[in-house]
Amino acid sequence: MRIQTRSFVSFFLIACIPPWIGWSLLRFGVLPSVGAWQALYLTGWGASAAGLIATHMEEGSGGVRRLLSEALRFSVPVRWWLFVVLVPILASAGSVLLYAGLSGNAVGFKPSSLLALVAPLHLITFFLGPFGEEFGWRGYLLPRLTRKISVLPAVLLVGVIWAIWHWPLLYQSFLAAPGRQLATIIVGVSYMSILIGTVYLRSGSLLLAMLLHWHINGVRDISGQVFPGLPEGDDLLQWCGVGANLLAALLTIPALPRRASDARG
Length: 265
What we know:
Layout lengths: L2 H25 L18 H14 L1 H10 L7 H26 L16 H5 L4 H20 L2 H15 L1 H10 L1 H26 L2 H21 L8 H18 L13
């Protein structure tokens, strides 16, 4: 088995097996999802561990140092910092405006609730999904796929793999509403993968990719606080979110580099 093939297989085994076991034990009720058992959610760090290990297998310690330096890269064009900060908020606001227009329901606006995004408890979540995953998805997997296929299919393929990787966390909601949930998952991962992939390939900053991943999650989680009056679990609201995310993804596609060699700009 060639080193590239061996490292690729190793990446998927390390990225998938620990979280699939840990998350399944919790979500299938084998273990209680309370107390110390919740630490099993941290098995999701397998994605970043896999990215670092597979990179070391292919490039040695120099490759690992490169990834770590990308995770500390602050110096990028201001437009990408603005993109990270503003686009998730605009997409969320767009979905709420669409919902209010279609439903006729009054929705409030409480901008002070955006401060929750810098609250200490929220800052901790950076080290869960974003830090625990992005060394794998964007740091290792995306650049290698762009060497084999064109950039947009590579970005979307990472999104598909990313969604499948989450299956133990998603299956219950999928069973409850298969059609809506499938659309939400497909558009949601495409939206996130296109945005994060664009930022990473254009800026070369894994830090910015992590921050965007974190910010998208955070904006989604506090939307009910920022826009009081939004109904929880409303079908129309979810479809409006699908539409707003799809529009944001489509508008971002032209910013993707056409070839991997065009990245960073």
